[in-house]
Amino acid sequence: MSRPIISGERMLARLQSLGQIGAVESGGCTRLAFSDEDGRARDLIKTWLEQAGASVTVDSIGNLYGVVQGLSSGAPIMTGSHIDTVARGGQLDGCYGVVAGIEMLQAIRDAALQPSVSLAVAVFSNEEGVRFSPDLLGSRVIAKDISLEEALATQSRDGKSVAGELKRIGYAGESSPWALLPSKFIELHIAQGPCLEASGTAIGIVEGVQGHSWWEVVVQGCANHAGTTPMPLRLDAGVAAMRMACALQASACLERLPAVATVGTFTLEPNAINVVPGLARFTVDFRDAEDGQLREADLLLRSEAKKLEDLGFMVQLSHLSRALGVRFDATLCDTLQATATSRGASTQRMVSGASHDAQMMATLCPTAMLFVPSIGGISHNPKEKTLDEDLVAGAQILTDAMWSLATTA
Ligand code: GLV
Ligand code: MN
Ligand code: MN
Q1: pTM for this one?
Q2: Average pLDDT score over the chain
């Protein structure tokens, strides 16, 4: 029986084109959620989906879907990912899974095939959570982890709402986020870490994703003159915040509580060379596969904040995001492994350190993920790269798996 064969060349060229929207030097990309660049990238994705014969819809949180109708009715089998990026991110994070999904639909069309059940490609809104927290926003709404109203009311640091920005870029859709619930979900993604490359493995079969807990911490002290304020009389918010950040990092390093902890943003006010900082604002990203460990890390953060309060600082803690660790569907993992093996690809079972929309979709239907190696394990960096042949192999394995599920379901 004939089956769809992708064009690696077309997929790689499309990844390049998408990467030009919001391009930064050294091949990277800044395309924050609901920005003008996100809007233009969505326009391009929509065109490609339509060329692949898909009908395109947008739901009220801005998730964009392309669906190719199956011979029978019923819930679609879905793949997809995201096209928003972090600031100065790479061209592959998220985009690879979306463009590979479109390539799958195009290959089906090129071969004049029709699946037995519908196939869908989803582009989820605001996966990264950089401009608007929480992250995974589009898939969180579908999974009812956050209400649609709360998601639309989410504000960016510069005072813009998700609802307003979606309208501004023309992607405040009309369909319900629950109109297209899939029967299965498979996300293809770059590994973003060193494991696959280090073991020389072609394909990661992702059995789960670790959870995360995100915080914003604001430490208030007293701004004062750098030359005249004696050291014992200072309430230096900058040093206090740095001590807290170091304590959290040391806990992860020395006690693995949690598995990893990151202070990714840190700003001081008034931010002047000759002023003792009066205010420090920073974010904390805790990750661990065990929810209990994340809760312990949250308690540690509170106790470090209390230590600063005892010294006379005011500390404000805002919880920005939480996602529980998940385990993916064992049968679907086995299917993906068998598909990869039948293409001669070596496989490795693994747990994802990065968060993914699949984490939310897993609460709705059998879900699994496929990873391809990241060169040097570099990601969230303009230098993020994967060998072309690995990208093409992963996309063909996704296509094989989706096609076989859609013809045997
Ligand atoms: C998304 O890439 C995340 O893991 O934060
Ligand atoms: Mn991603
Ligand atoms: Mn990312």
Answers
A1: 0.97
A2: 97
